[in-house]
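Quick start: what a row looks like.
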Amino acid sequence: MRVSFHINNPYIGDIIGLSMKILLSLLICSQVASTCIEPYQWPDRFDTQYDCLMFGYEESAKKMKEIGREEVNKYNMYVKFYCTPEKPSI
């Protein structure tokens, strides 16, 4: 089997039968307090890393708007997130 990195190729995990779901975890952090809240695991799973990342960026922007400019600036808040393969259940 030949593997390339062309954009139109299907997800490699689907080709070799190792397709798995991606878990999104979001954290809201404050530089002033030097802390982050516990990670929030998004209830939906994603089929690809790309889909998870794009959704994470969108949700991060929504959360910053929801918190508001004043609070974000006052506490130097930010959102970080991770997209990780979900551990298979055995």
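That is the whole record. The first strand starts at residue 22 and ends at 30. The radius of gyration is 17 Å.
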